[in-house]
Amino acid sequence: MRLPTTEALPSGPTIDVQSPLEAAKLMLDGQSAAIEAVRAASASISNGARKLAAAIRSDNRLHYAAAGSSGLMALADASELRGTFGIPTDKILIHMAGGRAD
To answer: Same structural domain for residues 21 and 50?
Structure first.
């Protein structure tokens, strides 16, 4: 089964055979769809954020599980939590495929 990538959007044509303008429009359509999906889920996202904040305040820890480039994004995200939200670094754990990242 072939999964959609940045070259092949689920809506149809591949970006690499489009003109730059058409490729930009296709990517913008995808971003607009993502914004609408987040908007539709905003109440659930807000509820999850409140629960996470309460869990951290109750001395629980935040766990990231990732591999590859998503693991690098988790590491980048986690590295900003202390400065942005005051979450102590010992409350943040990153579980990377292939080993520990701490």
So the answer is: yes
